[in-house]
Write a structure and sequence with these properties.
The chain is an alpha/beta fold. The protein is built from six helices and six strands. The model has no long low-confidence stretch (mean pLDDT about 95).
Length: about 260
């Protein structure tokens, strides 16, 4: 546990797959193009500042930790990527047999084995943090390629903040973050644009219970060469400085309990 009210969740940076699943997947799936590449590295300074981090180890192609357990749609107007995906963001099949869905039994097994433990750990950290400080702030950290035509039109801004249209956190969180981003004009940003927050932000963000949640979706072009997957520390450093300012501002922000 950290020493501040801030918790950072990184649900999509994992690349692990159970051995029995690997032979079922296409070569494209095994390249894991929809991974939130290097998000944990971008925020690796945060524990030293007192934040708690929880980072998934398994790929979203096994199960998507940022989807509701019943796989209900989050964005009605956009293609759904699914709790247990069978297509990539580009619409490519993930399975060699071209299956369009998994059995209910297989989805239930994955949910019990992988989804539920992550959420149990996240829930426990949030409740312990709220009990200790009187409130908790949850930053759900993500990234995605800057251009994914099947999911959104045009190029994404560098920083995409989601607060479920202001329902998942206090307005003071938005105001503070807006000030930090306005002071960094190098980076384009938007609040509650294409990304309003996934299941984690929407489910855990309860300002009335003093749990404030937001999602930050980074365009990968802001810190890496999207033609590959390698981490470029020099290229990423300016963005890390901005993320440090964001993290420090969230840690310093007093939010009254109740």
């Amino acid at each position: 546990m950290g020493t501040t009210p801030l918790i950072i969740s990184v649900p999509h940076a994992g690349t692990g797959l159970p051995p029995e699943l690997v032979p079922q997947l296409t070569p494209r799936a095994l390249a894991m193009p929809d991974t939130d590449w290097h998000v944990a590295e971008l925020y690796d300074f945060a524990p030293a500042l007192g934040a708690t981090m929880i980072v998934a180890s398994h790929s979203r192609y096994l199960i998507d930790l940022n989807r509701p357990p019943d796989d209900a749609a989050l964005y009605s107007a956009a293609p759904q990527t699914g709790l247990c995906p069978t297509q990539s963001f580009a619409g490519e099949p993930l399975y060699l047999d071209g299956r369009g869905s998994l059995t209910a039994a297989e989805i239930a097994r994955r949910r019990a084995q992988y989804w539920e433990p992550y959420h149990a750990a996240l829930r426990a950290r949030l409740e312990a943090t709220r009990a200790r400080f009187g409130y908790a702030v949850l930053l759900d950290a993500h990234s995605i390629r800057s251009v994914v035509p099947r999911l959104f039109a045009d190029r994404l801004p560098d920083i995409n903040v989601g607060t479920y249209d202001g329902r998942s956190c206090s307005g003071r969180v938005n105001e503070t973050l807006g000030q930090v981003l306005a002071a960094a004009p190098r980076w384009s940003h938007v609040f509650d644009g294409r990304f309003k927050g996934g299941h984690i932000t929407r489910h855990y963000g309860e300002p009335a219970r003093s749990v404030h949640a937001l999602q930050i979706e980074l365009a990968q072009s802001s810190y890496m060469d999207e033609s590959g997957t390698a981490y470029d520390a020099q290229r990423a450093e300016p963005l890390r400085e901005l993320l440090r300012n964001i993290v420090e501002s969230l840690i310093a922000l007093p939010l009254a309990a109740g």
